[in-house]
């Protein structure tokens, strides 16, 4: 925040004071309702940020020379927030997985019951980890590919801290028992309205920065980020249209009724996968993969064709979540057809990524960061194939409501989304902090294998248990009665649930290793900034052992 | 009259034409010879070494 001008600091202070007053109003109106607790949290959050802002408020005006550099301060904070949410969200995930094997782990409390920690896990990893990673990398990529500094210095902070306030309100709400009962959209009306404000600011900032670009052509990664920002805004607004009980209550009711509600929810839900968990991460792929491999993308034209294919087709695929329901049959067919067609642009993207590596496979062997990105492209291809397959109605009759779906989601979330994120972070962190390389290449290697083995254990466990579950549910005796009771299927799941929790644990440990490695990279003195002969107290003098390790 | 049937007909028939028309536009944009240089430049521009905004 050291680079903020007086005007920007004043604007920040005004916004934070307004937010603090809003927090007081929410607390006063809501009283003992969860809205009241959230009001107190909004108040504390804005006061904490106000304290941070004031503690540097009387510093000198920033030098105009800053405008000749990219604005990377929000990116640095964003990396930290990304890692915090990764560890938090994955920890809750391991806990939820362990509860399925050992239900005692809810400690007989309501706040730790599976129904509450499960959305805390999904929101923590999707919005907390994924969302912060997307915002952070988008600020990096848009500046580098546009050759322009972010359009102003206030809105990046507003977007970053505003988004994290949303995550905080959402996740704490689930523990307190507040939910809209819409998957990936559980947060209540006031958090939803706040997210709209933050998101519109994000959109305006992104467009303004693109408008300042010195490159005539907008690089394809920015198209994906723009699709992510625009479509998530549309989805979020339409799916969350709701009428609160009153302005003093957290509870609201959706304006959609019956099967329309289901259809809107899964139009939202599947496009959350498409535009939150795919489009933005493909943007990372199209920037960090060529950068890391030091090879241009195999075919730029193919990336354009697959962009329009993915954005167009995904919009129609959501109804495959509602096979065999009251949704009209032709709408189910439409969703199924578009899901199958989606395989073409999806595999075009995955193939484009893997073909880019032709001629650089020795780097994949030697460089764990590039291997993260390669594995992500591989898992992207795998899970999009699986997705198209599961969307076919007769296949869905076996897989729906079973762990197969959970396995599919995690092949995408762990194998694709998380791996491309870590590959991008390992490329971004040394670049932003002007370090030659990560603190430890060996730890990147350790992380890679933990992540890969964890993902494989998780996904194979869920494939097995899901198919067994589906088959047991549909096994009839010759007299046309069900052979297995529901309890029988649970007993059959037990070993797989243990394996799944173990796979998730490995992945969590990998994320902790990444956080440590990145922390040490940031702390490591860069040779240019801190020469060894500098006049420093002995304890601050960098030791030889703290020097970055040689190239891998 | 704007009814359920109108929507169904719109989706079933005009949706298809929309898809076909849209695909043709994308194909033209992608393979237009005038765009060749722009795309080839885009492939390479991310490798420029200088790390600062252009003024």
Structure notes:
The complex is a heterodimer of chains A (552) and B (55). Chain A has 552 residues and is mostly helical. Chain A folds into 2 domains: 1-57; 74-523, Cytochrome C Oxidase, Chain A (Up-down Bundle), CATH 1.20.210. Chain A has helices at residues 6-30, 34-55, 73-101, 114-146, 155-175, 189-211, 220-239, 258-293, 300-314, 329-341, 343-356, 361-366, 368-390, 393-399, 403-432, 441-473, 486-523; strands at 242-244, 252-254. In chain A, strands 1-2 form a two-stranded antiparallel sheet. In chain A, strand 1 (242-244) and strand 2 form a beta hairpin. Chain A starts with 5 loop residues before the first helix and ends in a 29-residue tail after the last helix. By secondary structure, chain B is mainly α.
Mean pLDDT of chain A: 94
State the shape of chain B: elongated
- The number of distinct helices of chain B, counting runs of at least 4 residues, comes to 2
> Remind me, CATH topology of the largest domain in chain A?
Cytochrome C Oxidase, Chain A
Q: Point out poorly predicted stretches of chain A.
A: 530-552
In the CATH hierarchy, what is the class of the largest domain in chain A? Mainly Alpha
Report the β-strand fraction of chain B as a percent range: under 5%
Shape of chain A: globular
- Low-confidence segments of chain B, given as residue ranges, are none
Protein name (chain B): CcoQ/FixQ family Cbb3-type cytochrome c oxidase assembly chaperone
Pfam families (chain B): FixQ
InterPro entries (chain B): Cbb3-typ_cyt_oxidase_comp
Transmembrane segments (chain B): 13-32
List keywords for this structure.
heterodimer; A: 552 residues; mainly alpha; Cytochrome C Oxidase, Chain A; 2 domains; two-stranded antiparallel ribbon; globular; B: 55 residues; 2 helices; 69% helix; elongated
């Amino acid at each position: 925040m050291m680079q903020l001008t007086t005007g920007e600091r004043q604007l920040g202070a005004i916004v934070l004071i307004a937010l603090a007053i809003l927090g007081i109003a929410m607390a006063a109106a809501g009283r003992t309702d969860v809205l009241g607790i959230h009001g107190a949290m909004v108040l504390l959050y804005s006061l904490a940020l106000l304290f941070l802002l004031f503690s540097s408020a009387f510093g000198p005006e920033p030098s105009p020379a800053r405008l000749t550099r990219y604005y990377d301060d929000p990116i640095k904070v964003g990396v930290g927030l990304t890692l915090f949410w990764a560890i938090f969200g994955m920890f809750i995930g391991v806990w939820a997985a362990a509860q399925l094997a050992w239900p005692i782990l809810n400690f007989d409390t309501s706040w730790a019951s599976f129904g509450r920690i499960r959305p805390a896990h999904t929101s923590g990893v999707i919005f907390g980890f994924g969302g912060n990673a997307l915002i952070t990398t988008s600020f990096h990529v848009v500046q580098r590919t546009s050759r322009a500094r972010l359009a102003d210095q206030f809105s990046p902070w507003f977007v970053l801290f505003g988004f994290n306030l949303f995550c905080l309100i959402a996740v704490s709400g689930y523990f307190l028992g507040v939910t809209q009962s819409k998957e990936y959209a559980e947060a209540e009306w006031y958090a939803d309205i706040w997210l709209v404000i933050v998101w519109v600011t994000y959109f305006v900032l992104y467009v303004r920065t693109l408008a300042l670009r010195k490159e005539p052509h907008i690089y394809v990664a920015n198209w994906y980020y723009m699709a992510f920002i625009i479509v998530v805004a549309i989805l979020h607004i339409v799916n969350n249209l709701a009428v609160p009980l009153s302005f003093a209550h957290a509870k609201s009711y959706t304006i959609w009724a019956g099967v329309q509600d289901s259809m809107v929810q899964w139009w939202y839900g599947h496009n959350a996968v498409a535009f939150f968990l795919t489009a933005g991460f493909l943007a990372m792929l199209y920037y960090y993969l060529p950068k890391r491999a030091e090879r241009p993308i195999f075919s730029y034209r193919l990336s354009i064709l697959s962009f329009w294919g993915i954005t167009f087709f995904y919009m129609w695929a959501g109804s495959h979540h509602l096979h065999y329901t009251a949704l009209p049959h032709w709408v189910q067919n439409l969703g199924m057809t578009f899901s199958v067609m989606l395989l073409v642009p999806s595999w075009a993207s995955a193939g484009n990524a893997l073909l880019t590596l032709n001629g650089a496979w020795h780097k994949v062997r030697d460089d764990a960061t590039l291997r993260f990105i390669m594995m992500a492209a591989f898992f992207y291809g795998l899970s999009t194939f699986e997705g198209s397959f599961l969307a076919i109605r007769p296949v869905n009759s076996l897989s729906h409501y079973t762990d197969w779906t959970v396995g599919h989601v995690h092949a995408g979330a762990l194998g694709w989304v998380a791996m491309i994120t870590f590959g991008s972070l390992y490329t971004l962190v040394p670049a932003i902090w002007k370090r030659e390389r990560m603190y430890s290449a060996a730890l990147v290697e350790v992380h890679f294998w933990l992540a890969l083995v964890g993902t494989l254990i998780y996904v194979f466990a869920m494939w097995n248990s899901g198919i067994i579950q589906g088959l047991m549910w549909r096994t009839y005796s010759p007299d046309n009665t069900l052979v297995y009771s529901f309890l029988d299927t649970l007993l059959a799941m037990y070993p797989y649930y243990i394996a799944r929790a173990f796979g998730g644990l490995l992945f969590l440990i990998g994320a902790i290793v990444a956080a440590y490695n990145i922390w040490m990279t940031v702390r490591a003195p860069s040779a240019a900034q801190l020469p060894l002969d500098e006049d420093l107290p002995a304890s601050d003098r960098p030791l030889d052992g703290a020097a970055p390790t040689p190239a891998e | 009259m704007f009814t359920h049937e109108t929507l169904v007909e719109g989706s079933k028939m005009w949706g298809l034409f929309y898809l076909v028309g849209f695909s043709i536009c994308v194909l033209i944009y992608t393979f237009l010879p005038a765009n060749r240089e722009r795309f080839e430049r885009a492939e390479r521009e991310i490798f420029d070494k200088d790390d600062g905004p252009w003024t």
